[in-house]
Specification:
alpha/beta; Aspartate Aminotransferase, domain 2; Aspartate Aminotransferase, domain 1; 2 domains; 14 strands; globular; aminotransferase; L-serine-pyruvate transaminase activity; pyridoxal phosphate; alanine-glyoxylate transaminase activity
Length: about 400
């Protein structure tokens, strides 16, 4: 029997980064501490109490009274699938609004479920005109209208109340991707008329990836009850998950105990700061970043009225090496940012100011580092103005 090659493995010691990409974001120290608490069983009465607390905290953050509000064990993509597989059946008419990578993923799932897919498509970096969505719905019986509230691939925010009204005219459910918005900007499911929503823990909640908060309105729950076919996913079947998260507390799968500790603490951190204060902090740091970027002579991809405060897309100047800039930020400054996805690959940088990463010192450090790197590449920028512009904000 071969002996384990112990000398080939050093003690785990990942580098300390400042995570300013599209996710994951910096983890709050309180969350890391909570995750180190002793593991207990997933049916332990003490853990059941923690589960109930998490549901209540999520309701506050989603601004909803939906009883079916809980975290799915999996990343945000699992939340997206959970919402869709539970209400969409083969032959259902589904309208998906696609202006980025994550709208395209919704459309892909709808097709895999055998839905009659109708897409509303606009270029990356733009928002939807309500007339386009109304035309796509066309007054026809429709099961679901899906839209990304905060498109992580482009930095565009899409208003939801008007789309909800269009969907409800034909008794359709409105599904909203809130992965990047939850905890960084207002998300008000009940007031906006959102029937299904999902998010992720690794963005503005400053928690590691691994859980996907979801919320189902009474209309969505009724659609689940009215299904004519069995939910195609066993793992994400809400009828079984709810026997664990409520009611009988029956075993379904082994919940990620310590991740749920972390989520509970992350939600407390947000709510203790206060939702309005959290949103104002994200907005203020975003405005400071934009001021510095524009003072440098660079430009943002998205029009001001559509921009996400927590995910900023900066157009890469002509002649600048995208990969070299991101490598230099990582190697020389320990700052991670994201590159473009899909149609924006090689054209933009995606800079996250999410949750615990949305701090004044991160804005200042990033602007100084970016200016230094671009100067080294002989880029045509205005030097020495970015920090002053950011400080003025």
């Amino acid at each position: 029997m071969n002996q384990f090659p112990r000398n080939d493995f050093s003690q785990l010691n990942p580098p300390v980064r400042t995570l300013m990409g599209p996710g994951p974001s910096d983890i709050h120290p309180r969350v890391l501490q909570a995750m180190a608490a002793p593991t207990i069983g997933h049916l332990d009465p003490a853990f059941i109490r923690i589960m109930d607390e998490i549901k209540t905290l999520l309701q506050s953050l989603f601004q909803t009274k939906n009883d079916i509000t809980f975290p799915v064990s999996g990343t945000g993509s699992a939340g997206m699938e959970a919402c869709m597989v539970n209400v969409v059946e083969p032959g259902d008419r589904v309208v998906i609004c696609r202006n980025g990578v994550f709208g395209a993923r919704m459309a892909d799932i709808a097709q895999r479920l055998g839905a009659e897919l109708v897409e509303v498509v606009v270029p990356f970096g733009e928002a939807f005109d309500l007339g386009m969505i109304e035309e796509a719905i066309g007054g026809k019986p429709t099961k679901l209208v899906g839209v990304v509230h905060a498109e992580t691939s482009t930095g565009v925010c899409q208003a939801l109340p008007e789309i909800a009204a269009l969907a409800h005219r034909v008794d359709a459910l409105l599904l909203a991707d809130c992965v990047t918005s939850l905890g960084g900007m207002p998300v008000n499911l009940d007031a906006w008329g959102v029937d299904l929503a999902y998010s992720g823990t690794q963005k503005c909640l400053s928690c590691p990836p691994g859980l996907a908060p979801v919320s189902f309105s009474p209309r969505a729950v009724q659609a689940l009850k009215d299904r004519k076919t069995k939910v195609v996913s066993w793992y994400l079947d809400l009828t079984m998950l709810l026997n664990y998260w409520g009611g009988e507390r029956a075993y379904h799968h082994t919940a990620p105990i310590n991740m749920l500790y972390g989520l509970r603490e992350a939600l407390l951190v947000v709510l203790e700061e206060g939702l309005e204060a959290v949103y104002a902090r994200h907005r203020r740091n975003h405005e400071a970043l934009v001021a510095g970027i524009e003072a440098m002579g660079l430009r943002m991809l998205v029009e001001p009225q559509l921009r996400l405060p927590q995910l900023n897309t900066i157009v890469i100047p002509d002649g600048v090496d995208d990969g070299a800039v991101r490598r230099a930020l990582l190697q020389d400054y320990n700052i991670e940012i994201g590159g473009g996805l899909g149609a924006l690959k090689g054209k933009v940088w995606r800079v996250g100011l999410m949750g615990h990463a949305s701090r004044r010192e991160n804005v200042v450090t990033f602007l100084a580092a970016l200016e230094s790197i671009l100067s080294g590449q002989k880029a045509s920028i205005q030097r020495g103005k970015a920090l002053e512009a950011a400080a003025a904000v």
